[in-house]
Amino acid sequence: MHAEVGWIEVICGPMFSGKSEELIRRLRRAQIARQRVQVFKPAIDDRYAETQIVSHSRAALDAQPVETSAELARMVRSDTRVVGIDEAQFFDDAIVEVVERLANQGMRVVLAGLDQDYTGAPFRCMPQLMAAAEYVTKTLAICTRCGAPAGRSQRLVPDGEQVLVGAVEAYEARCRHCHSPRAEATTRALFGESS
Ligand code: ADP
Ligand code: ZN
Asked: Three-class SS of residue 77?
């Protein structure tokens, strides 16, 4: 029997880079191997389905929505072997301690989340999670402008305007050359660019 050694895996990158697909792939393999898996997502992210992780390519996996990292911690059963967490960037800062504790207890914790916000700045707790992790995978999308590897999410709706979480029309994958930290709709209005 394999010793119960825990660890943390972080899958990070921009929108459309395949983070959810990769998370679903890793968790499915664990389920197929009959490991006890629990999957969580922040309750604020209600794109497509409340109780599922759904990728932009429509892969789906059942998940329990939770409001806070404390609620997540309470819901993890002691016999769970693998904990999956999607949209990790939306959790409160205490998520870092929570996943450290789960890994210390012998669980494998796999998190997916945006490493940068649409301005290119580190996204809330993600740098801490990446530092705490044994494994960090950075996924990249394809730049919708030039086809280069894209590590950034371009916002297409003006700053200050409310955007629904997961509203795919509001963002596009961009490389560092084609990305602007300001919302592109504003740039277009200023410089008269056509879309
Ligand atoms: P993430 O969780 O990182 O937002 P998903 O796993 O939900 O990514 O979706 C990845 C899928 O998004 C890809 O397999 C592809 O079908 C689709 N996609 C849409 N736009 C792009 C893009 N610009 N580059 C790569 N994949 C894209
Ligand atoms: Zn580009």
From this structure: coil
Nearest protein CA to atom 18 of ligand 1, as residue: 16
CA 64-67-72 angle, to 5 degrees, is 60
Per-residue pLDDT of the chain (195 residues; tens, 9 = 90+): 555 899 999 999 999 999 999 999 999 999 999 999 999 999 975 555 578 998 888 889 999 999 999 999 999 999 999 999 999 999 999 999 999 999 999 999 999 999 999 999 999 999 999 999 999 999 999 999 999 999 999 999 887 777 766 677 899 999 999 999 998 864 444 444 444
* pTM for the whole structure: 0.91
Q: Are 65 and 54 in contact (CB under 8 A)?
A: no
CA–centroid distance, residue 173 to ligand 2 (Å): 9
Could you tell me where the beta strands, DSSP code E, fall in 5-144? 7-13, 37-42, 52-54, 60-62, 64-66, 82-85, 108-114, 135-138, 141-142
Active site residue 87: yes
Question: Side chain identity at 42, as an amino acid letter?
Answer: P
Sorted by where each starts, the structural domains of the chain and their CATH numbers stand as 7-139 (3.40.50.300)
Any ligand 1 atom below 6 A from CB of 144: yes
